[in-house]
Every structure is written in C-alpha cells, then in structure tokens.
Automatic annotation (TrEMBL):
Organism: Sphingomonas natans
Enzyme class, first EC level, given as a word: oxidoreductase
Keywords for this protein: Oxidoreductase, Pyruvate, Thiamine pyrophosphate
Boundaries of every Dehydrogenase E1 component domain copy: 35-331
Catalytic reaction(s) noted: N(6)-[(R)-lipoyl]-L-lysyl-[protein] + pyruvate + H(+) = N(6)-[(R)-S(8)-acetyldihydrolipoyl]-L-lysyl-[protein] + CO2
Gene (name only): pdhA
Cofactor(s) this protein cannot do without: thiamine diphosphate
Entry-linked Pfam families: E1_dh
Subunit and partners: Heterodimer of an alpha and a beta chain.
EC number: 1.2.4.1
Role played: The pyruvate dehydrogenase complex catalyzes the overall conversion of pyruvate to acetyl-CoA and CO(2). It contains multiple copies of three enzymatic components: pyruvate dehydrogenase (E1), dihydrolipoamide acetyltransferase (E2) and lipoamide dehydrogenase (E3).
Name by which UniProt lists this protein: Pyruvate dehydrogenase E1 component subunit alpha
Length: 344
C-alpha cells in the first residue's frame, strides 16, 4: 500500500493519484528479475574482492535495495533522463545499463574503469548515459540533482532528473534549499528518499523528528508518496505516477521508498546497532528478489529457468572480476590528469 501526502499548506493544489502496482508483462518481470539478480551477484562479488584486498577505500553495498533502482530506472530513458546518487552507487549504474566490466574495473582502481580507475566505488560517472555520480558528501547530490532538473527545463530536452538520497541525508539543510528552488521553478525532478532505516548506525526514528519522510516536501508544496521499496512492481508503479507528474510541468515530486540494507553501512561496519534476527527477518519475509521469483512462478516460469538465469548472471559477474583483475592500473603519468577540467 502506498501513501500520498496531503500537506495542509498545499490547500487546493492538485495531488498525485495513489500509484497502482505496475502491470508488467512476463517478459518485463523477467527483465526486472535479471537486473535485480545482476546487482545482487555483482555486490556479493564486490564484497569478496574487498575481502581479498583488491578494492581499496570505501565500499558501500546495495544488497537488499535492488527493487528501488530497478523499479525506478526501468521507467526512464537512458541518455535523456539524468540520474544522480550518493556513494552506494553500483546498483544504480547497473540498472542504467552500464557495463559491469567497467564498474568492477573502477572498484579495483584499474585504468579501464569508468572513472579511469581514479574514482573508485563512490565516484563513478557516465555522462554518456546521463549518470552523474557517485557522491561522497551526504546530501550534496540533491543540489546537483536540482541543477540537473534546471538544465532539462532550460534546454527543453524533455528529460527529468532522478535524485536519490538516504534517510540520513534527508536531514541535511541543502536538501531543503534544493526543494525550495525546484518547486519555485517547477523543475522536472523526482526526489527519491531510499529509506533503508539506518544512517550508518543510527536508526531513522532516533535521528528524525518527522520520520514519515514522504511528508518532508510539504512546506515547499511538493507532494510525496510512500512506496514499498521491496516490491519492484510497486516501485515501478510509483515511478510511472511520478514521471507523469513532472513531465506534465507540475514541478518536482518526492518518493519515499521503504527499503532495507542487509549488509553493513560499508565494508567496515561492526554492525552493533541492530540484531542478526532483525536482518534475517527482513530477508525471510520481504526479499525483493524472492518476491518477484514467486510472481514469476505464478506466470509459469520454472525454478530451473530461474536457476539457469542465475548461472548466466554469475558468469557475467565472474567475467567482470576477471576483466578487472587483468586490467592494468593507471599509468603514473595520469596522476595529475582529470583533476581539473582545465590547466591553470
Ligand atoms: C556531509 C557529510 N556528513 C557526514 C558524512 C559521513 N557519512 C557518510 S554516510 C553517512 C550516513 C548517511 O546515511 P543515509 O543518508 O541514510 O544513506 P545510506 O548510507 O543509508 O544509504 C554519514 C553520516 C558524509 N559523508 N558527509
Ligand atoms: Mg539510510
């Protein structure tokens, strides 16, 4: 069940409809399944490579949240619409059709990586795809996203900006400056709060006075919708509603996706702030991939077919790790290139 915010201040402002679950064909459902499983297997492999010391710096895994990126980005047009997110960014790149090889090569700091091996996990870009990062400063991507929305409106290119941030980032000041400008100028921006319940070790209820985060746009007259972020069809349904809203020139909209991360905040998280039972219970009851597998079974897809798909995906991921390990590190002569746009 989704909830739509009815801000008192909005008065007679038009409200978005309560989104319906997306009526996907069997083929579309299989594609969502494939994409979610690719993200899961890719992240598992990244976790292993980190353990082996092949990935340096930070590494934030997306396991558990797959339905969010896949449900939302499957509604967008790569190259026309822009996406920007924080540091937990590998899944969003995969969901935008970016080659797993160049993502894994970036994670392992290789020259063939999408940021030439100089960005790592948190700083991946593909301007060609309209993927604008990959940002380590909590909340900073929200202002960048408002800017991307401005660009789409100014250029009249028909695109929109999809701007992801976390429940913790939702308490950052610049988020609200961005909300204000986006609504004032009616920018085509879908603000997306990925509420995975925790900001590092702090639960959303401990840190947020208003923990119904879909209501956070109310004082800016931005309508909000709360969505089950573990159900890819519910997410895609909300994406359709949000897309129609911003494309009709009604300004920005806010989606709160209720989700959960199974792994620690980053690879170096002692995980003392929640119990194993809590994590296990979400995995058992609400896993987005298992949920879709059940729906696919109902469509006549056999367990063997799903297993075969998993095998193909494991190969893609293993190949990406092999590609990364075989690629050279950046040449020393690259140390000062791509640091500034120009020479000063
Ligand atoms: C401005 C700023 N403050 C603090 C940090 C340290 N920090 C990194 S991630 C994080 C938690 C953010 O949590 P949330 O927004 O819920 O995103 P999630 O990690 O759950 O995806 C914090 C406090 C930072 N990177 N930038
Ligand atoms: Mg969070």
């Amino acid at each position: 069940m989704s909830k739509v915010s009815t801000p008192a201040g909005i008065g007679n402002r038009e409200r978005p409809d309560e989104p319906k679950a997306y009526a996907a064909s069997k083929e579309e459902m299989l594609e969502f399944y494939r994409q979610m499983l690719l993200i899961r297997r890719f992240e598992e492999k990244a976790g292993q490579l980190y353990g082996l010391g092949l990935i340096g710096g930070f590494c934030h895994l997306y396991i558990g949240q797959e339905a969010v990126a896949v449900g939302l980005q499957s509604a967008l047009t790569v190259g026309r619409d822009s996406v920007v997110t924080g540091y937990r960014d590998h899944g969003h790149m995969l969901a935008y059709g970016i080659d797993p090889n160049v993502i894994m090569a970036e994670l392992t700091g290789r020259a063939a990586g999408i940021s030439k091996g100089k960005g790592g996990s948190m700083h991946m870009f593909s301007v060609e795809h309209g993927f604008y990062g990959g940002h380590g400063i909590v909340g900073a991507q929200v202002s960048i996203g408002a800017g991307l929305g401005f660009k789409h409106k100014y250029a009249e290119d028909g695109g929109l900006a999809l701007v992801y941030f976390g429940d913790g980032a939702a308490n950052q000041g610049q988020v609200y400056e961005s909300f204000n400008m986006a609504e004032l100028w009616k920018l085509p921006v879908i603000f997306v709060i990925e509420n995975n319940q925790y900001a590092m070790g702090t639960s959303v209820n401990r840190a947020s006075a208003e923990d119904q985060l879909y209501r956070r746009g109310e004082s800016f007259r931005i309508p909000g919708i709360q969505v089950d972020g573990m159900d890819v069809l519910a997410v895609r349904g909300a994406a359709e509603e949000a897309k129609a809203w911003v494309q009709a020139g009604k300004g920005p909209i806010l989606l709160e996706l209720k989700t959960y991360r199974y792994r620690g905040h980053s690879m170096s998280d002692p995980a003392k702030y929640r119990s194993r039972e809590e994590v296990q219970s979400v995995r058992d009851k609400s896993d987005p991939i298992d949920h879709l597998a059940k729906l696919l079974e109902g469509e006549g897809v056999s367990a063997d077919e799903l297993k075969a798909l998993d095998k193909d995906i494991r190969k893609i991921v293993a190949d990406s790790a092999a590609f990364a390990e075989e690629s050279p590190e950046p040449d020393l002569s690259e140390l000062y290139t791509n640091v500034l746009v120009d020479t000063y």
